[in-house]
Amino acid sequence: MVEVKFPHFRALEKRRIASSNTIWATLAGSKVAANALSLTEGSERTLGEIFPAVEHIQRFNLRTTEARAILNAAESDLCTMGMAYAIALHEDFVKSCLSLLVPVGLISASKVKSATTRDVHEVFERVAATSLDTDSLALFHLTRLIRNCHIHAGGEVSGALVNAYGSLTPSQVTLWEDLTKDPLNIPAVGDPAEVGVGGLIATLAVGKRLGREINEGLQSAIPRDAWADIAVGDYFANHKKSPRDPTVVRSARGYTRGLYGALALTDGELSLAVQRRLQEK
């Protein structure tokens, strides 16, 4: 799959990488901190006394034994928070992609605004006349329901989540187990809705897969003249050359070749987009 690296997609990639790094840095940091505190085992002094220069230490001013126990147990909560963040970031991206379909008349701005995590992919499939991978979509909804248990049900497994586990096909179970590196076990209603490192990895991976499929769907859903307008607008947002410059099409071609190469926009299409831009001014 060759991606079109339009501005929203580039922004997603930057945010996805940054958020992933932050999530793993936080998880690793808790383990590093717990390991470092093993050197103070047996001390009766508080963290504030031992590490007075550490910012925010007074908000976590426990004795080292207590602090180390909390840090060692923090992985579960950090994975849960990381999952919620990753899902929110992905939803924002999908709605940004839906917004690209507003100017070409495939969806209204009000319907983009009303789309939620529950149906945003299905809305995209319908208006873009495309199909997303059913296995990836099923696993996205599984992670969404796990997240919902923590937001709406005190962290306990809901009936909806149990049903989602039970409705997974063999290929979806295999994909989940490949991503998490753990066997899939169907929980009971009222059990803790566990995320774990495996669940977090699966959430990040599924979001990445769906993001690339949405990119592919946009390539065919958006008319070529609209893509040319997007590409030329992207070019002028990053270059100060005048649209009247006789070399502007050649420059735009060079800029868009790498970012919009999957579309193979022609000089004629870029030239017409430059002319439309001039007419708007």
Short description:
The chain has 281 residues and is mainly alpha-helical. The chain has helices at 7-37, 47-50, 64-72, 74-99, 109-114, 120-128, 134-152, 159-166, 170-180, 196-221, 224-238, 248-259, 267-280.
Question: Tell me, what's the shape?
Answer: globular
- Major sheet details: none
Strands, count: 0
Helix content: 55-70%
Mean pLDDT: 94
In whole angstroms, how far apart are the ends? Answer: 36 Å
Measured by DSSP, the beta-strand proportion falls in under 5%
Given the structure, what is the number of helices?
13
Radius of gyration: 24 Å
Order of helices and strands: HHHHHHHHHHHHH
Q: How many domain modules?
A: 2
Poorly predicted ranges:
none
Structural class: mainly alpha
Give an overview of the whole structure.
- The chain has 281 residues and is mainly α.
- The relative contact order is 0.12.
- The protein starts with 6 loop residues before the first helix and ends with a helix.
- The longest helix is centred in the N-terminal third of the chain and has 31 residues, at 7-37.
- It folds into two domains: 7-27 and 75-221; 224-280.
- It contains 13 helices and no strands.
- Helix 4 (74-99) packs parallel to helix 6 (120-128), helix 7 (134-152) crosses helix 9 (170-180) and helix 7 (134-152) crosses helix 10 (196-221).
- The radius of gyration is 24 Å and the shape is globular.
- The chain has helices at 7-37, 47-50, 64-72, 74-99, 109-114, 120-128, 134-152, 159-166, 170-180, 196-221, 224-238, 248-259, 267-280.
